[in-house]
Every structure is written in structure tokens, then in C-alpha cells.
Amino acid sequence: MTNQGKPARLTFVLTALALGCAAWMAGIAVLPRSGEPGVTWRFGSDEAAVGSFETVPAWDSMTLSVSLPFDAYVYVVSFDHLHGTVTYFPTEYLGTDLHDPTTGRMNFLAAGEHTLPGSWNGSVSTWFVPDLPESLSLCVIASRKPLTDLEAILPLTMQVGNRAYRDRSMGFYMPRAGRAQVIGKTRLPHPLLQAALDSATAPLAGPMLAWPERPGVYFDTLHIVPRKPRPGVVAPSNPFARQLAEQVENKRRGK
Predict the structure, then answer these.
(1) Would you say 150 and 141 are in contact if contact means Cβ atoms under 8 Å apart?
(2) I need a surface site. Which of 65, 68, 193, 213 has the fewest CB within 10 A?
(3) Omega within 30 of 0 (cis) for the link into 117
(4) How far apart are CA 110 and CA 100, in angstroms?
(5) Are the C-beta atoms of 134 and 62 separated by less than 8 Å?
(6) Is the pLDDT of residue 220 over 90?
């Protein structure tokens, strides 16, 4: 090799090393850190985790694994342009064994590992992936202190629960205040939820992002795209789920 070729080769090697180091550091950046909570959504009977904007079959079961390094108040809210804002957790319509004995709250979780929506009277509960013609955004909030301003408005959004049906299947509920009082139809009704929706997509098993507006508050958002149900899988048996399926089908047909 001539002396003229050595500098070019050295530059190539140094560039490759720099790129490799950057990729390695990027990989480190998405690993969970011990001081921050983390969440992972799981779908279907195989409890598969997916990345943002991946497709998930409609009506598949849906659970949330939460890892907390400290006691925290947890909130789960979704948004899509068909239903608007929907509160999954906590809601008065959700039957669950998750109740803190001291505070009486279902969403005050001790440090450790938890799976939402939990169990009810010994039976494991799951949410379901709604059939939608567009994406669904799943926002999770974890806070060291109760978020009273958020708690004041979530009961005015659509709710998810399992108390109305004998088979304990999940369904969507109007807020107790009535249909006319529903908020969050076109936009998430709180700046924290909007910040979570607008944030950069978090990794599959990475730490939640800290909200700079309020210390001790973290959020994570997963965007999924519901697709056709698995062969043989039908809408949950409750009336609302059947109505939801009809609404989606009518929207697809342009009715």
C-alpha cells in the first residue's frame, strides 16, 4: 500500500468506529434506568410487545406491564379520532382487585411490577384492541403525587370498564355526567396528556419520559394501528363492542 492510501484508510476506520460508538450509545440511551418507571404494552394470547405504529389485530386482548421504582399514581388514557379521549384507568366502571388498602385508590401502586387492568375476584382481566379505521394512541402517566387537576376531568371523558356485563367483558361507558358533558372529543383535554401524545415515541421497554412542567411526573405513549381481527375472532359479546364494530364498518363504507 502506498503512503497516499493510508490516510484514506485511517479516515474510513475512524469514521466507522465513530458511527459504531454512536449506535452503541444510542442503544444505551433506550435502556431503562433504575430511577424512572417503565411500561410495556402486551397484546393477544401470546402477550406480544409491539413498537409504535405497528399493526395489531382488532379485538386482541390488551394489558399493560408497569415497572415502578417508587410508589406512584398511574393513569391510562387513549385517543383516537372516532371516540376522542377514553379513560382506561382508573374508572368507576372498572372492577379490579387493585386497591391500595391505605388510600383506597385502584391507581396508587406500590413500587414493583404490576399488570393492568389486574384481576377481579380471582379472574384475570384484559382490555381489548378496538376496531378502528385509523391509529390508536395509548398514553400512560405515572406520578409520585396524585394529579388532582387531571383527576377532575378524566371522569368527563368516555370510560372503559367491565361492571355492566355478566361475563365481565370490557366495554365503553358514557361518563356519569351524561353524553352532553363529554369532553376531549377532538383533543386530549389536559396539557400533560397532550405532551405525552406529542412526545417522541418511547422504545419498547425503555424508561418513561419526564414531564419538565412538573417534577416527579412521567409519561409514555404507544401508537398502534388496529387491523382486521384474527380468523375466527369476533367482537366481544357486550352490546357496545358490537355497536362499535358496526360504526367502524359504516365509516369504512362511507355511510
Answers:
(1) yes
(2) 213
(3) yes
(4) 8
(5) no
(6) yes
How many CB atoms sit inside 10 A of residue 228's CB? Answer: 11
At 240, is the secondary structure helix, strand, or coil? helix
Amino acid 218: pLDDT: 97
CA dist 202 and 21 (Å) reads 21
Distance CA 114, CA 142 (A): 13
Query: Contact 100/114 with Cβ under 8 angstroms?
Result: no
129/134 Cα distance (integer angstroms)? 12
Concatenated DSSP letters of 194-218: HHHHHSPPPPTT-BPEE-TTSTTEE
| pTM for this predicted structure | 0.80
Asked whether 207 and 39 are in contact (CB, 8 A), the reply is no
**What's residue 237's pLDDT?**
66
Rama region for 220: left / alpha / beta (φ>0; ψ in -120 to 50; rest) = beta
**Cell numbers representing residue 84 in the block:** 376522542
C-alpha 249/C-alpha 127 separation (Å) is 21
**Cβ count near 172 (within 10 Å):** 18
The three grid cell numbers given for residue 168, joined into one nine-digit string: 365481565
186: Cα separation from own chain's centroid: 18
Contacts of 214 by beta carbon, 8 Å cutoff, 6+ apart? 143, 192
List pLDDT tens digits, range 113-165: 999 999 998 889 999 999 998 999 999 999 999 999 999 999 999 999 998 87
